[in-house]
Amino acid sequence: MTYRIALPVGGRLPSLDIIDPNSSAVQRFLRREALAGYEPSTAAALLASFGRAGAGFSFVDVGANIGLYSALCAALFEPSHVLALEPTPSIAAIARQIADANGLTIDVQELAASSSARVASLHLADAADVSNSLESGFKASEQSVEVQTVRLDDLIESTHAAPLVMKIDVEGHEAPALEGARTVLERRRPVVVVEVLNRRNGRLAEAISAAIAGLGYRAYELAPQPTWDEHDGPVSVGEHRDWLLLPDPIDDAFIEAWSRWSERLSACTPDRSSRLPIIRTTLAAFRRGGVSEVKASFDRFRRASRRAT
Q1: What InterPro entries would the database entry show (predicted)?
Q2: How many structural domains comprise the chain?
Q3: Average pLDDT, the chain
Q4: Are residues 176 and 147 in the same domain?
């Protein structure tokens, strides 16, 4: 199956085949909102970082899910190595399929980043596959799978893929993942985008700040319209937010690049995606929630299409 979403102009590929608009939560979101609606501030920050890295850089995508950011990196730029870590077997399989369908070289590994190497339980969220977590009780979960965890320091040393850019989105386990990458952060000084969830009364933000303490990183909140105010580390802002961690103070060139990519992403609207496969989409929605979910699914698509026009 093929289902294509538009990519920002100026890259090596005009569109990305996400294969199926129904199988996973991220694929369904991209069907409804396309790239224009998918974490636009975060996406613009990563694209700006890739552009500044120059040809031949490495990107490590930690908690890659279907590998969307890995695919954007490989499709729009000229990296030497894209490493995507996704411990959920079924989702990692989708990431590999998307890479293959688009002719992209992405090293997808079924590993979970943490502060030590061990076998751990990955709790599979009942509600959505984007919330699978190593943290027990993070979301309601009746099932789990055993996964291998790894320290990013060890993995990056073994693959010789010292990253210039990293993204870490691991559903509440970001601080241990950063603890396991301290040598990389200290010696290689990559740009890092990290998710900071508004949970546990701000303690997740505090733990992430503690994990990078003493490394000289500056933190910037990736709000929909960032102020680019500098912090010593992420802070709880009352809602879920990604943060940009830079080894040096942000400069005007980065902010201008973020603005350019933000504008290009805003043009990647649902009306530029493939035509919706009506029968498969209807059946998938019915399996998820019956007639009410079918109606809700098509109402969301109509609203997204109207916004795009």
Answers
A1: FkbM_mtfrase (IPR006342), SAM-dependent_MTase (IPR052514), SAM-dependent_MTases_sf (IPR029063)
A2: 2
A3: 91
A4: yes
Three-class SS state of 273:
coil
Going by pLDDT thresholds of 50, 70 and 90, the confidence category of residue 284 is low
Tell me: do 141 and 284 sit in the same domain: no
Three-class DSSP category at 17: strand
pLDDT digits (tens, 9 = 90+) for 228-242: 999 999 998 888 999
Q: 299 and 229 share a domain? A: no
Query: Is 288's pLDDT higher than 50?
Result: no
106-113: average pLDDT? 98
Rounded Cα distance between 269 and 259, Å, is 17
DSSP string covering 148-209 = EEE-HHHHHHHHT---SEEEE--TT-HHHHHHTTHHHHHHH--EEEEEE---GGGHHHHHHH
Output the domain CATH number for residue 89. Answer: 3.40.50.150
Domain boundaries, position 189: 2-267
- Residues 171, 296 share a domain: no
Which pair of structure tokens corresponds to residue 93? 């399989």
- Claim to verify: residue 33 and residue 151 sit in the same structural domain: yes
The three-point CA angle 287-291-297 to 5° equals 80
**pLDDT tens for each residue of 56-71:** 999 999 999 999 999 9
Beta bridge partners of 121: 146
Q: How far apart (Å, rounded) are the C-alpha atoms in residues 301 and 288?
A: 16
